[in-house]
Amino acid sequence: MIQIGDTSYALNDPVVIAALAGMGVILLIVILLVAAVRAAGRSARLAEPLARQVSQLGQSVQSLSEGQQQLAGGLNHVSEAQASSQSHMLQLMEKRLSEVSGHMTENLHGSAQRTARSLGELQERLAAIDKAQENITKLSGDVLSLQDILSNKQTRGAFGEIQLTDIVSKALPSDSYTLQATLSNGRRADCLIHLPNPPGPICIDSKFPLEAYEALRRASTDWEVNEAAKFLRNSVRKHIKDIAERYLLEGETADGALMFLPSEAVYAELHANFPELVREGFAARVWIVSPTTCMATLNTMRAILKDARMREQAGAIRRELGLLFSDVERLGTRVENLDRHFNQAAKDIGEIKISAEKAGKRARRLDNFDFEELAPETEPTIVKLNKDG
C-alpha cells in the first residue's frame, strides 16, 4: 500500500504497477542520456589524434599511389621480359621434350624387350617351381607314409628287417648268410651270418625303440626329460636282454650277437647321452650297430669269410697248381717237337729251292738249244721229302 497525500494506492493495482514501470523506464532513459553525453565528450577528445592519423594516412596513400604507378611501369617491363623468357623457355622445353620423348621411346622399347625376356624366364622358373612343388607334395606324401609305417610296431619291425636285408645283401655273398634263420631253441633271428669257428655263426636282430626316442625329443621340462630317458633305458635294456637270451647258444652260435638300430639318430643318442647302455651291451656280448657301423662290421666279416674259404680251398689250389705245372711241361715238350718239325721243314724247303734253281737253269739251256754246255751227270740228285714236313 502506498499513501500519496489523501489517496492510497495498492501495490497490486495494475495502474500502480504500470505507472511504476513507466517511471522506471523514464529514469533509465535519463541515465542512458547522461552516459551518452559523457561518452560523446570522451569520443571527441579521442577523435582529435585519430583525425591527425587519418590526415597522415591520406598523405601516405597518395605517396603509395605514386609508387604504385611506378611499380606498374616496372611490372609492365618485367612482364614483357618474362614473356620473352617464357617463349624462349618454351622452345627449349619443346626441344628437350622431343629429345626426352625419343630417349623414352627407345628406353621403353628396350624395357619392353627386357620385360618380355624376363617374363619368359619367370614363366620358366614358375614351371620349375610348379614341378618342384609337385615333387615336394609327393615327398610329403611319402614322408606321411613313412610316418604311418613307423607308427606301427609290426611295420616298423619290417622296415628295420628290410633295411638290414639290404645292407647284408650288399656286403656279403648270398651263401654266407641266412635270413629269418630258426635256431635250435625255436627262436628266429632276422639274420644269421655263417662265420667259421671261431667265432662261429653270429646272429643279427633288428630293434627300433622309436617311441622312447621321440618322447625324449619332445620332452620340454626336466620331469619329462627324466621320464623319457627312463623309458629309453628300459626299452634298450629289454632288447639287449632278449637278444642275449635268445641268440647266444653255446656250441651253436658265436658268443656274441649284434643289435641293429635302423636309425643313425637313435644310435648317436645312445653313444652321446647313454654310454652306460652301450657298456651294458658289451657286458652282455650284444653289440649295438647302426646302418653305417653295421656295414663296416659286415665288411670285416667278409674278409674273415674270404680268408676261411681260401684256407678251405688251399688243397684244391695245390692240386690245380700241380696239374698246371704238368700242363706247362707237356706244352714245352710239344713246342720243342714243333720247333724240330719247323727246322726240318725249313731244311727241306732249302733243298727244294736248290733243286728248283738247277731245274730252271736246265730248262733255259734247253729252250736256247745249248746242248753242248750240258754236262752228263754221274748220279741223279734225288730230293727226299720228310713225311713230317
Spell out the key features of this protein:
8 helices; alpha/beta; 5-stranded mixed beta sheet; 8% strand; 389 residues; 7 strands
In short:
This protein is an alpha/beta fold. It is 74% helix and 8% strand.
Note the overall shape. elongated
Beta fraction: 5-15%
Count of β-strands: 7
Strand sequence of the main sheet, in spatial order? 3-4-5-6-7
Report the total helices.
8
- Uncertain segments are 142-146
Q: Cα-atom Rg, whole angstroms?
A: 65 Å
Helix share, percent? over 70%
Report on the biggest sheet: 5 strands, mixed
Question: Kindly state the mean pLDDT as a whole number?
Answer: 77
Note the run of SSEs as H and E: EEHHEEEHHEHHEHH
Which structural class matches the secondary elements? alpha/beta
Distance between the termini: 194 Å
